[in-house]
Amino acid sequence: MSEKVESGVSRRTVTKAMAWAVPVMAVASTVPLAAASYVPVTLTGIACKEPGNPKYYRFQVKITNDNLAAVTVTFVSLTINGLTLSTVDPGSTTVPSFTERLITVRDGTYPDSANGTATLTYSIDGVQYTTSTSFNDLPPTNGVGAGCLLRTFPFQQDTPT
């Protein structure tokens, strides 16, 4: 009996490859969607101070979620000139998928409103990150000619990405 030899890939090889491909796809689909890519969170440099004693600061934060799923950003602390005092308000925000959110965070009871540096510590999926900005001559949040772009609190604005 003679055997016919064909060049190329046999059906058996294709079937084996398909059998291995299906479990790999199933495992890959269990990875959380929010972990698929980085979610940038930045202090935009826009900030104000609330007049009076003790002092409160307001900072604008930009969060860009280009993921397929919503992501929750938890604001852990705001450190002003090396001093961390109270909790950030709001404590967290959930940003829908494919959305850029501008949100105002507030933290306070600082002894003065000196110029300096602000560092925001936040977490996403239990992992902590920081973002910083420097600030000078912050305008007050009220009064004639205050010039503060962050007068309302709380504030948030969403824009599709």
UniProtKB/TrEMBL annotation:
Transmembrane domains' residue ranges: 20-39
Keywords annotated in UniProt: Membrane, Transmembrane, Transmembrane helix
InterPro entries: TAT_signal
The species this protein was found in: Microbacterium istanbulense
Name the record gives this protein: Uncharacterized protein
Family annotation (PROSITE patterns): TAT
Source organism, top-level taxon: Bacteria
